[in-house]
Amino acid sequence: MAKKVTMQKIADHLGVSKFVVSKSLSGKGGVNETTRERVIQAASQLGYFTQKNAYVQSIKRPLQPADSDRNKQSVLVLMPNIRSQTQDSLYWGKIVDGIALALDQEGLGMVIVSEHRTDNFINILNPNGLLGLIGVGQISTSLLLEVHRIGLPMVLIDHEDPLIPSDTVFANNTDSMTRLSNHLMGTGHTELHFIGNIRYSRSFRDRWIGFRSALEENAMKTPAGDDEMLQLEGMDDGTFDESFKQWMQRRKKAKSLPTALVCANDFIALTISDVLKAEGFTIPGEVSVTGFDNIEDATRGVPPLTTVHVPKEAMGRAAVEKLLNRIHNPSAPLEKILIAADIVHRDSVAGPRG
């Protein structure tokens, strides 16, 4: 029989006191964010949360009367405060638009929170006035643990957490990227390369899996796991451009530059297109470039970008529908909803250079 994972065991593992572990897991103040994250991660790795009697202090929420006025209720939309993940984003903003429209049709309000620190999040949260939470994009485990502790029903869009179980909504990233990669190979490309940090998000990883699957199905060599183009830093602000430029120059010198670059999203594709053009390459004459998401700027590229259209508003609406279903059926099995995405053919792709 496996030994019980106790708070003391977690404390010994990290070299901290049991008091610190207890505070971190109960959602109480007095522990800094870095320490809280370390405790939660260690607890997850050791299997603490999988035990039936794991201590995660819950806050009891008063039951709402069956005939309570839903017009006075709101849904919390949590968007952590990082540079690219805002309501003004060409990607995330469209998802929020879908959430807002669906909630409005139901006569429900929406409260958007971009706080990423758990202590501040606890202070501003009033669970009694909220029906549930929709998380948009990357959210730390500590924040999700707090939502779980409070007992709010939640649905996550474009993110899932290995510790905190929840309903999720994603685009069908893997299948869509496989189809896009097969399209490139169908036009004659045999030298393809994936550009984007595959550890940046679940969606990026799934898109990489779809790309790799297409290569494997066609008996083509896939990049090694330590390939630098799979580990690019600076996904949010475009500062990966210098790393890409240096990689491209080395490949050009070695006469091994791919004929098609398959990017994890449109922002990456548009950024590297600028680098390629500045270095004298023609698109798609010498290099074909594809993106993913179909943000508005994809049509303004020179040339316009071949990409995958992600129905962003539909993802927001699906999350609202799932949340309301979860509220009415709290014991139903958790679901991962995949929204179909389609290839958009534009002028950044042609057959490989002769």
Automatic annotation (TrEMBL):
Q: Where is the HTH lacI-type domain?
A: 5-61
Check the record and name the Pfam families matching this protein: LacI, Peripla_BP_3
Recite the UniProt keywords alphabetically.
Answer: DNA-binding, Repressor, Transcription, Transcription regulation
Q: Give an example GO molecular function.
A: DNA-binding transcription factor activity
Where would one find coiled-coil regions in this protein? Answer: none
* Entries under InterPro entries matching the protein: HTH_LacI (IPR000843), LacI/GalR-like_sensor (IPR046335), Lambda_DNA-bd_dom_sf (IPR010982), Peripla_BP_I (IPR028082)
Source organism superkingdom: Bacteria
The answer to whether keyword DNA-binding applies is yes
Keyword Acetylation applies: no
**What is the designated name of this protein?**
LacI family transcriptional regulator
Q: Which species?
A: Paenibacillus borealis
Where is the organism placed in the taxonomic lineage, from the top?
A: Bacteria, Bacillati, Bacillota, Bacilli, Bacillales
